[in-house]
Amino acid sequence: QVQLVESGGGLVQAGGSLRLSCTLSGHTFNRYAMGWFRQPPGKERERVATISRGGGSTDYKDSVKGRFTISRDNAKNTVYLQMNSLTPEDTAVYYCAADYLGTNTYNYWGQGTQVTVSS
């Protein structure tokens, strides 16, 4: 059974940085495209960044372009989200998700990690 475990969230001041990690177990990691999503307080979940199975293709929500970087290490079964120049608007619960064979259907989700950016 596929499991995703996130880590790296926390409290940071505006302008600071955090790196989120998400490790997949229970299946072959490179069969999955991966994504990071977030749900701000009182709002719907939104897609933040995605990365293809091999890591050669990435996509970002407009508001995080130039500040966030998604990457993956297939040898470690792990996807990362490097977040720089954080603002209070980035405060949310962040989730990683796995898309089997890159069909744009995310079937597996982590438990979420809280990111809070103080002003």
Supply Rg.
Answer: 13 Å
**CA-CA gap between termini:** 40 Å
* Oligomer category: single chain
Amount of helix: under 10%
> Would you tell me the structural class of the helices and strands?
mainly beta
Please count the helical segments: 0
> What's the total number of strands?
11
Order of helices and strands: EEEEEEEEEEE
Question: What does this entry show, briefly?
Answer:
With 119 residues, the chain is mainly β. It contains no helices and eleven strands.
What topology does this entry show?
Blueprint: E1 3-7, E2 10-13, E3 18-25, E4 32-39, E5 46-51, E6 58-60, E7 68-73, E8 78-83, E9 92-100, E10 108-109, E11 113-118
Parallel strand pairs: 2-11
Antiparallel strand pairs: 1-3, 3-8, 4-5, 4-9, 5-6, 7-8, 9-10, 9-11
Question: Could you characterize the architecture of this molecule?
Answer:
This protein is an all-beta fold. The chain contains no helices and eleven strands. Strands 2, 4, 5, 6, 9, 10 and 11 form a seven-stranded mixed beta sheet that branches. Strands 1-3-8-7 form a four-stranded antiparallel beta sheet, with no helix packed on it. It starts with a strand and ends with a strand.
